[in-house]
Amino acid sequence: MLDVLSILSGSDLFSGLSARSLERIANHLKPVRFDQDVVICREGDIGRTMYIIVSGSVSVSSDMGWGQRELDRKGPGSVFGEMALISNDVRSATVRTLEPTECLQLDNESFDALLDKDLDLAQRIAKIMTRRFSTLVHKTSSELLGAYRALTFALANITESRDPETGAHLERTRNYCVLLAEALYREERYKGLITPQFIDGLYQAAPLHDVGKVAIPDAILFKPEGLGPEEFEKMKIHTLIGASMMEKVIRQSGADLFKMAYRICLYHHEWWNGTGYPHGLAGENIPLEARIMALADVYDALLSRRVYKPAMAMREAADKIQHGAGVQFDPNMTLVMIANISRFEDVYLKYQDE
Ligand code: CMP
Q: Are residues 154 and 80 in the same domain?
């Protein structure tokens, strides 16, 4: 004889309810038995019953588009099939027995009747479901975000492997960008334009600024002397190639990060006075993130040694940036950068090529 009350009080959904509530639920339960490898709930089907496992175990899986992925395994005391009942929707996953399994079954009507009568039960279910969903959302979004960040950086590193501006350049420029954006964030005129999300996106998107260089021929990319006019024209195309790569990514994922990366790739060589490339945009027509990137990129280039030029001293680089205000760079941003220049110098010293 099954001790239904102790099964219920040990179950993840019903434990902690009053004896009266448990008894009320117990009266609606029906024992059922399944053989091994039986599908009890099928994802997408209408669901009218939920189950408490008495003995045996089940596997919960979901269709990921490329195949089934196991989400969880459940054993005695666990409840499944409750989500379709609570949300009045189709089954969110497929549940299959891993071995002969005994359950207690509760149907839709009984479940609704119980919820109507038992406020304790209704509150408890609301709490459990909220907790479950927020854990799931948090886990899924942090996993996705981690993968997203790693892939973005891996993509950006492809350019590093071909670009003479190698090593810590990507790490430094993304940090200069964030430093500058954080300083601008404190200014009234950027209210609502520069937000914490903008700064986070900038940190992720900045390393992609030169991703279009993957398509620039070695003879140009690795040329030790300065480029001739024709070669320079070819080099300029890296902005368009990067933007077109980002466009393809955006077709798959419209995430803000990639839209920002698109604008950075395309416009980070535009000049405030309109003499930059590829489109000759001027002033505030150049997107904010690209104006920030321009300062970060040029500052780092000045401080870096190239085959065709020595590294500039920090003081000299700061002067050069200051002279570019209103010519190459957004004058207000340049002012803010110069006012905080020692922090940029710290970043330069912190991230050095190995
Ligand atoms: P329901 O959607 O009715 O049918 C499938 C059941 O699988 C679902 O209710 C839950 O009981 C269970 N389930 C769905 N997703 C998960 C998950 N991520 N982890 C554990 N169990 C789940």
A: no
pLDDT tens by residue, 69-128: 899 999 999 999 998 988 888 999 999 999 999 999 999 999 888 888 888 888 888 888
Element (H, E) at 63: strand 58-63
Looking at the structure, do residues 73 and 163 belong to the same domain, yes or no? no
108 lines ligand 1 (CB under 6 A): no
Q: Whose CA is nearest to atom 5 of ligand 1?
A: 93
Q: What is the pTM of this model?
A: 0.67
Q: Is 78 in the pocket of ligand 1 (CB under 6 A)?
A: no
- How far is residue 182's CA from residue 191's CA, in Å, rounded to a whole number? 12
- Check pocket membership of 276 for ligand 1, CB cut-off 6 A: no
Distances (CA, A) of 181 to 156, 191, 283, 345: 21, 12, 17, 16
- Quick one: tokens of 347? 């970043």
Task: Give me the number of domains the chain comprises.
Answer: 2
In angstroms, what is the span from residue 94 Cα to ligand 1's centroid? 8
Domain span holding position 230: 141-350
- Which of 13, 39, 41, 64 most suits a substitution to test ligand 1, by most atoms within 8 Å of the C-beta? 41
Cβ of 163 less than 6 Å from ligand 1: no
In a domain, 131, yes or no: no
The pair of three-digit structure tokens given for residue 242, joined into one six-digit string: 């990067």
What phi and psi, each to the nearest 5 degrees, are found at residue 154? -60, -40
Ramachandran assignment for 81, one of left (phi > 0), alpha (psi -120 to 50 degrees), beta (any other): left
Same domain, yes or no, for 158 and 9? no
β-pair partners for 107: 49
Residue type, 33: R
